[in-house]
Specification:
By secondary structure, the protein is of the alpha/beta class. It folds into 3 domains: about 10-65 and about 245-505, ANL, N-terminal domain (Rossmann fold), CATH 3.40.50; about 65-240, Rossmann fold (3-Layer(aba) Sandwich), CATH 3.40.50.12780; about 520-635, ANL, C-terminal domain (GMP Synthetase, Chain A, domain 3), CATH 3.30.300.30. The strands form 8 sheets. An 8-stranded mixed sheet has the order 12-11-8-6-7-14-15-23, sandwiched between helices. Strands 5-4-17-16-18-19-20 form a 7-stranded mixed sheet, with helices on both faces. A 4-stranded antiparallel sheet has the order 21-22-24-25. Strand 24 (about 485-495) and strand 25 form a beta hairpin. The longest helix is centred in the N-terminal third of the chain and has 17 residues, at about 100-115. The structure holds 5'-O-[(S)-butoxy(hydroxy)phosphoryl]adenosine (WT7).
Length: about 625
């Protein structure tokens, strides 16, 4: 057995689950023995969901990078840690062994120190999917600084919001990024963001696309120059900062149903144990396997299952810079063949999009190395599940449908590959330590099987969020106040006769577009910033590829003759305020919105209209102006 805590049979899973519920502290203490600690814990768990306050492995001291790097450098220095595949198939791929990765992380840790970074500082990372992104993340952890990675698709405004919220003092970026046939001017976007970020004292810029960039004296420096200074001193090691178990490891911003994105906070010890444990068990990783998670490190999936989960397990993690459809829809399959990928972990939206290109792009590609397939980010429809199973897994690879969230740190509900039973479109069973409950609107727990309700957790797990940065009250109200003594996920869920869970989607005002979370309030605010927009309402509608599409109802009083032009302007506004990922798919101009007498927008009605369910709009008698519904239906897009 490669990992003593790897559950290899259904029975082993059931036993472990049982133990994790009956004696959670003993259970997690046993698992935690498999890591490198500078000091072990005094107490395994202390918690209450009222404040909330959750502490795992209190009193323990560690550095997560010793677990991701040092211990593997000692036992398997020459095993590839990161296999990197560039955007352009004609560019050479790169392999970093554990020893090489270790040295690069240590060197960059020196660079951060030389540029004034200290333990506890917040460092914003806005980079392309190149190994240096993982290196920057790990170097932050090495020195005890808190990383806040911002996805390369976010706008200058979004970056500025995040930098200000966390009061970052350093930004690590690149001149540009390649994505398919496009290139994105990252540094120039950072320059715009920094007009309003006085907290930032240093910007470290990696060369990637070699486009011209502005470099401000005293503030900006080149990654390569800084590394050279460290190399000249011959520095290859960096003594890790010894952290408390509950010290912050990182902040990752995510959208909610209200206001601005919130900074979800994860801490060192619990997050490490959780990502490692779930990685090893869900994917049934075996030494030597090549694990390919197609997410971007800008999202939590990349944090947990490209960087921390795999590396803390001494695994080989494949990192891909590009997109699935460029230069053609065979790109993933070419990568699987080239690097002999064993585990492929991707999103339903990617599967549906590739399905649309037909089987030609798979023909002639050798996918024999594949052993396990995974999906994440949104519900997978049965058609996509079967297509993935038949055409990619050739019916011999178990598919794990992993349900989790930015807030949960790692997977909470999933089958274990080849160990517990899969069921198409079901995430199936909770991992050890996870205690899901379904509740009705009033918060009553719904017992038994063959039921559905809102998904909550009644007990903490090591990887759960601890707070939302700078605003603990927001964490409490968002997750712990809807239902007393429960963590509320925001998802609706069904439990079948065998106790398998199927996530049916968000029950709050959050959309899931191509596996990315978009807050409707945040998007409405962005649209409302456009001159001429009086008010707007956003709802989701079923979209063949994206899962959910974005439908915007907009009241516009500007003087415009060309609606399409106005639509483009609105899209441009959204791109500037949030980023291109939040652009509405449809924009319908309306003269009013269906509102109650107290002025609340009745989204339920708009949702039905967007979905094309015009027969049964439900009760409209409480509407201030029922006629508006007729008008909206008549002009539906
Ligand atoms: C939301 C979390 C998990 C990392 C990527 C997204 C939805 C996630 C599944 C799944 C059905 C899923 C949920 C969840 N979701 N995985 N396997 N089946 N729905 O992280 O941006 O924090 O979004 O994604 O609605 O609440 P995120």
């Amino acid at each position: 057995m490669a990992y003593s805590y790897q559950l290899e049979t259904d029975e082993a899973y059931r036993k472990a689950y049982q133990k994790s519920i009956e004696t959670p502290e003993l259970f997690w203490a046993d698992i935690a023995e498999n890591f490198r600690w500078r000091k072990k814990w005094d107490e395994v768990l202390r918690w209450n969901f009222k404040e909330p306050k959750v502490e795992w492995f209190r009193g323990a001291k560690l550095n997560i990078t010793e677990n991701c790097l040092d211990r593997w450098v000692e036992t398997q220095p020459d095993i590839p840690a990161i296999v990197w595949e560039p955007n352009d198939p004609d560019e050479a791929s790169r392999i970093l062994t554990y020893k090489e990765l270790y040295e690069k992380v240590c060197q960059f840790a020196h660079v951060l120190k030389n540029n004034g970074a200290k333990r506890g500082d917040r460092i914003c990372i806005y980079m392309p999917m190149v190994p240096e992104l993982a290196i920057a993340v790990l170097a932050c952890a090495r020195i005890g600084a808190i990383h806040s990675v911002v996805f390369g698709g976010f706008s200058a405004q979004s970056i500025a919001d995040r930098i200000q919220d966390a009061q970052c003092n350093i930004v690590v970026t690149a001149d540009g990024a390649y994505r398919g046939n496009k290139s994105i001017p990252l540094k120039s976007i950072i320059d715009d963001a920094l007009c309003n970020c006085p907290s930032v004292k240093k910007v470290i810029v990696l060369t990637r696309t070699s486009i011209p960039v502005s470099m401000m004296k005293e503030r900006d420096c080149w990654w390569e120059d800084e590394i050279k200074k460290v190399e000249e001193k011959g520095l290859k090691n960096f003594e890790p900062e010894i952290m408390e178990a509950e010290d912050m490891l990182f902040i990752l911003y995510t959208s909610g149903s209200t206001g601005k994105p919130k900074g979800v906070v994860h801490t060192c010890a619990g997050y490490m144990v959780w990502t490692n444990y779930t990685f090893v068990n869900v994917f049934q990783y075996q030494p030597g396997d090549v694990h390919f998670c197609t997410a971007d490190i800008g999202w939590v999936t990349g944090h947990s299952y490209i960087v921390y989960g795999p590396l803390s397990a001494g695994a080989t993690s494949l990192m891909f810079e590009g997109i699935p459809t460029w230069p053609d829809a065979g790109r993933f399959w070419e990568i699987v063949e080239k690097h002999k990928v064993n585990i492929l972990y991707t999103a339903p939206t990617a599967i549906r999009s590739l399905m649309g290109f037909g089987l030609d792009s798979i023909k002639g590609k050798n996918l024999d190395s594949l052993k396990v397939l995974g999906t994440v980010g949104e519900p997978i429809n049965e058609e996509a599940w079967h297509w993935y199973d038949e055409n990619i897994g050739k019916r011999k690879c178990p598919i794990v449908d992993t349900w989790w969230q930015t807030e949960t740190g790692g997977t909470l509900i999933s089958n274990l590959a080849g160990v517990t039973k899969a069921k198409p479109s079901f995430a199936t069973l909770p991992l050890p330590g996870v205690q899901p409950v379904l509740v009705d609107e009033k918060g009553n727990v719904i017992e038994g099987n063959g039921v559905s309700g809102n998904l909550c957790m009644r007990f903490p797990w090591p990887g759960m969020l601890r707070t939302t940065y700078g605003d603990h009250e927001r964490c409490r109200t968002t997750y712990f106040s809807t239902y007393e003594n429960l963590y509320f996920t925001g998802d609706g869920c069904l439990r079948d006769e065998e106790g398998n869970y199927r996530i049916t989607g968000r029950v709050d005002d959050v959309l899931n577009v191509s596996g990315h979370r978009i807050g409707t309030a945040e998007l409405e605010n962005a649209i409302n910033m456009h001159t001429g927009v009086v008010e707007s309402a956003i709802v989701g509608y079923p979209h063949d590829i994206k899962g959910q599409g974005i439908y915007a109802f907009v009241i516009f009083n500007g003087i415009h003759t060309d609606e399409n032009h106005t639509r483009q302007d609105i899209n441009q506004t959204v791109t500037k305020i949030i980023g291109a990922i939040a652009k509405p798919d449809k924009i319908q101009f309306v003269s009013g919105l269906p509102k109650t007498r107290s002025g609340k927008i009745m989204r339920r009605i708009l949702r039905k209209i967007a979905e094309g369910e015009l027969q049964n709009l439900g009760d409209t008698t409480t509407l201030l102006d029922p006629m508006i519904v007729e008008e909206i239906i008549a002009n539906r897009l």
